[in-house]
Amino acid sequence: YLDLSYTPLHIWGTVPEDCITQPWQGQHMPALRHLSLRHTGLHDEQLDRLLPLWHTATGLTHIDLADNKIYDTGATHLANSLARHNTVLQHLDLGQNYIGPTGAKHLGTLLTKMGAMQYFGVQHNGIQNEGIRDVIRGLGQSQRTITTLRLSNMEGTRMGDWPTLIQDHLKCLTNLTYLGLGDMNLGDTGATTLATLYFPMATGLSTIMLQNNKIGHHGGKSVATAMMYLPKLGKLNISLNFIGPAAAGDIIDSLASKTTMT
Could you say which of 35, 123, 131, 230 would form a disulfide bridge with 152 (CB–CB 3.0 to 4.6 Å)? Predict the structure, then answer.
């Protein structure tokens, strides 16, 4: 277990930045299971210097690289290396980086091979619709174990694509407990599709994040109706939308008897 989070590389003494990555360029830490380098300023070149670690620490189950400076190149190299050397990864967080559609495509391919994945986060990146499709499709092809999916706050998502993404791919992920789709331009149609086609199948959901999605009255009413299928729901965020008082009232009524709401 190694957690170096919130330790910016530039303050690691007077030695060059790559002194943190260089020691891993050999047969080191083969028993490592948990690695967190969140908010360390890690960029693509430094991430590439960690490639030997992925080759050696093949038992890594938890990798947290969120809130760094990882772009398409770094995400691509990481995904390709993990796909070749790791079959047990359960937790991968790449949120708050600069990954685009190209990196997301390779991450989607990685996800088809990760049969033990439980948590995947790529929120606050720029993967756009093509990348969202690749990620959700990758998860849908083989991931029946995933329980947490964080895709919120993406740039360039097209509202009209959501019904197909939900119907063809997301609906396969029936074991989710946390679904993060905030600020994803779902719109009424996307929210309605989610409520009618996905929520009745994903009965284990405990947290749903749908904030800032341009959801109107119809979508809000559909979400309210779907609450009957979610007996474990403890948190619903549908703020910063346009559902109106009637739909908001329906949601409150549908949740009023749930003892799980916190």
Answer: 123
**Strand, coil or helix: 45:** helix
pLDDT tens digits in sequence order for the chain, 262 residues long: 999 999 876 654 444 555 555 555 555 688 899 999 999 999 998 898 888 889 899 999 999 999 999 999 999 999 999 999 999 999 999 999 999 999 999 999 999 999 899 999 999 999 988 888 899 889 887 657 899 999 988 766 777 888 888 888 888 899 999 999 999 999 999 999 999 999 999 999 999 999 999 999 999 999 999 999 999 999 999 999 999 999 999 999 999 988 888 8
CA pair distance 38, 40, nearest whole angstrom: 6
- Helix, coil or strand: residue 120: strand
Distance CA 229, CA 13 (A): 54
DSSP labels for 187-220? HHHHHHHIIIIITTT-TT--EEE--SS---HHHH
**CA dihedral sign, ordered 121, 127, 129, 135:** negative
201 neighbors 176 (Cβ within 8 angstroms)? no
Tokens representing 38 are 């969140």
